[in-house]
Automatic annotation (TrEMBL):
Protein name per the record: Amino acid ABC transporter substrate-binding protein
Keyword Translocase found: no
Family: Belongs to the bacterial solute-binding protein 3 family.
CDD domains xref list: PBP2_Dsm1740 (cd13629)
Signal sequence coordinates: 1-25
Localisation: Cell envelope
Domain Solute-binding protein family 3/N-terminal: 44-270
Location, primary (coarse class): other
Coiled coil: none
Entry GO MF terms: ligand-gated monoatomic ion channel activity
Segments forming domain Ionotropic glutamate receptor C-terminal: 44-270
InterPro entries in the cross-refs: Iontro_rcpt_C (IPR001320), SBP_3_CS (IPR018313), Solute-binding_3/MltF_N (IPR001638)
Protein keywords: Signal
Length: 278
């Protein structure tokens, strides 16, 4: 009996040792293939973004990319101890660019959606926004909500391929809908009187109303949707995702990205930066 017990314990120990060895090997391979490890080895963080979404990423008068996400990317690269490389990318190909390894992460004011999450992973949200409506000044008082604007005689516009278009098609079943390649083209349609309202992200609309839309448009600022923004990475990379979420937690704790944080104040409330892009 003692010999049987001894053989059993030896077998269990051998299996346990093999399991631990295999687990350790798997962990090593996982780390080697991690985007985070590749960034550290390369000495450079490559960030994909579309520089046309105020105030998150845009070009200043000298052609430099600036904005909320750019400042965050700089902090991220600094904490990694690597250089930062911004990769300007058209929105309609930004996920494909990530999947084909043109950059390590998307930091471009991207809304976390279930459809996108099927293809890519998101870190925890760093900002929560929603879609709001800007309408022609002549409609003030007459149009107080999306329901008032959802009539056949009205035209509503948005940007193609973004959550603004999704919200527009969800809330407007009777109005005429037109989409444009850029948000500026969509807003121009309303400014020129060719459309009655534009649906787009709340931060962009707030900034626009403080400048070009002032005295020309009316902002219906109650959000139609709940939209958390997050950084996107390729699937199957728990090490990178863990680092990003811990980095974000630190930034929130340091009052950098919370509601009253430094970046929120600099880019979402103060509009001094507009002078740099006009």
């Amino acid at each position: 009996m003692r010999n049987l017990v001894k053989k059993f314990l030896v077998a269990v120990f051998a299996i346990s040792t093999l399991f631990v060895a295999n687990s350790s090997a798997d962990d090593i391979n996982l780390w080697k293939n991690s985007t985070l490890n590749k960034i550290l080895q390369r000495g450079e963080l490559r960030v994909g973004m579309e520089p046309g979404y105020m105030p998150f990423e845009m070009k200043d008068k000298k052609g430099r990319i600036i904005g909320y996400d750019v400042d965050m990317a700089k902090k991220m690269a600094k904490e990694m101890g690597v250089k930062l490389k911004l990769v300007p990318t058209a929105w309609d190909g930004i996920i494909a660019g990530l999947l084909t390894n043109k950059y390590d992460i998307i930091m471009s004011g991207m809304t976390i959606t279930q459809q996108r999450n099927l293809k890519i992973n998101f870190a925890d949200p760093y900002v929560v926004v929603g879609q709001t409506i800007m309408i022609r000044k002549e409609l003030a008082g007459k149009i107080k909500s999306a329901a008032d604007l959802d009539k056949p005689e009205y035209t509503v516009v948005s940007k193609l391929g973004v959550t603004g278009e999704i919200a527009t098609r969800k809330f407007f079943k009777n109005a005429k809908i037109i989409t444009f390649e850029t948000e500026s083209d969509a807003v121009s349609e309303v400014l020129n009187g060719k459309a009655d309202g534009v649906v787009y992200d709340q931060p962009y609309n707030i900034v626009f109303m403080s400048d070009k839309g002032k005295d020309k448009l009316v902002h219906l600022d109650t959000p139609l949707t709940y939209e958390p923004l997050g950084w996107a990475i390729r699937k199957g990379d728990p090490d990178f995702l863990n680092w990003l979420n811990n980095f974000l937690r630190q930034m929130k704790g340091d009052k950098v990205v919370d509601f009253h944080g430094k970046l929120n104040e600099k880019w979402l409330r103060d509009t001094k930066w507009l002078k740099r892009v006009q």
